[in-house]
């Protein structure tokens, strides 16, 4: 078993990083070489803007290359609960933003001819307990009536037509969801940005930011200094660098994933009948999907811990046991890859994007970021160039989390809380 991301290990080699010295100035400096930063660079370059991307490590080395491979419509939260907290009008705006985001990902794949195994077979939320199904019914009725007439409810008597397991008691199908090979897509996006004129510097961590006036900043890196007319932070959960204001507002939560050896056609047909993306209804549940080469990608919050090799391996053992329990017929399948990543979680699980002290930013995707990060790259590119655009995640106030200063000391306590909640609810 390899302790590395399947997406990164099987992606094309990225050979487009710039070599030599940094430029002394740029119209826009983008900090972060994940989906948000690459999408912003792509769109800025399309508009003829001089844009430089600074990535502390390798392109796609963090969340964009270490996730579960889902690209789904629908919000991260239960839609009915979101309506209760923000109202139907605002919740509908959020919901439609995710639909637009998936459509935008598909449009880039088509326009740039990115070979990334993109398919759109829908997302199925599975009721892990019989008493979870009424909540799915409530959400289904609200979605059907308000924002998604194409949603479908599957009761317990028909769930085996969707997934070959006795562990589930019905499901909610959102048909617009998709999946793709994250490494292939990300490298394709990076190459497309470079082809349009963007410059990407890998292994160039930012060490200081100094505001000159308005949006203009001096960006200091390990390899030199750039005078930027505008700066976009696409840093996600980064706990390194001069980003303390954001670090107090985002909690890095570990998410862990295993990838099996290729399954037989018979195993796939029996267990994953319609080849969707799947997520269970537990607070500490699982998400899974198959790949173009017949592997099962199976993940979840196996442990409330930060990702590192030791933590990833321990989490992999937990996930393997979970896989055996949900799909006994796959109990003996080999595990080829195991990895972890960090989810940039906000307190309300809603992203944030806008401007702070002259810096532009988009982050906090809260485990639902593949599609939204790519979409927000386009939105932020428009904001950076002064074009009219609707920003669904602009909020008037983004308060720091009380008692939190960038180190998630409370994760083990949160894990115990949610495990206890899953036992009784």
TrEMBL record:
GO molecular function: oxidoreductase activity
Tagged with keyword Flavoprotein: no
FAD dependent oxidoreductase domain: residues covered: 27-383
SUPFAM superfamilies: FAD/NAD(P)-binding domain
Keywords: Oxidoreductase
Entry-linked InterPro entries: FAD-dep_OxRdtase (IPR006076), FAD/NAD-bd_sf (IPR036188)
PANTHER family registered for this protein in UniProt: FAD DEPENDENT OXIDOREDUCTASE DOMAIN-CONTAINING PROTEIN, SARCOSINE DEHYDROGENASE-RELATED
Name this protein carries in UniProt: FAD-binding oxidoreductase
Provenance organism: Rouxiella silvae
